[in-house]
Amino acid sequence: MKLVYITKRKAFTLIELVVVMVIVGVIAAVTLIKWPGSSLMLEQQADRLKHDIRYAQNLSMTQGERYAFIKTASNTYQIQNTAGSVLIETITLGSGITFSSLINLPNNLVAFDSKGTPYTDAGSPGTALATTASIILTQNGQTQTITITPETGYVS
Hints:
31% of the residues lie in helices and 29% in strands. It is of the alpha+beta class. The chain is rod-shaped. It starts with 13 loop residues before the first helix and ends in an 8-residue tail after the last strand.
């Protein structure tokens, strides 16, 4: 007589599969909620603004004329020479990004002389930036701050 052994097949049950799918779904939902998509756009826009301010400073030093970053609206700025005869570029910030404030820039601009020194107005000789200036960008409650150092005009 031959003995037959019945072996149980090992596999996942339907309940186990459903539980795993629910856990994966919860983890995915939490990850998507915390995903920094909008902050990445804000950070990229802040980097662009830093570059444009440095560009205005570089133009001033190489051309021997004053160039400036000028905030023209809540979400728009220009790079131009302070004589107003050469407009380099008008830039509109990304969707939902605005200037929340400009600190220590009373005329909504920073201009640079031929040595790269920052000024708070377009006059000649003008008013040199006396304390660190800050430009704050906002999107959906998140902020990015750009600072400009007096004397050197270092932008960070």
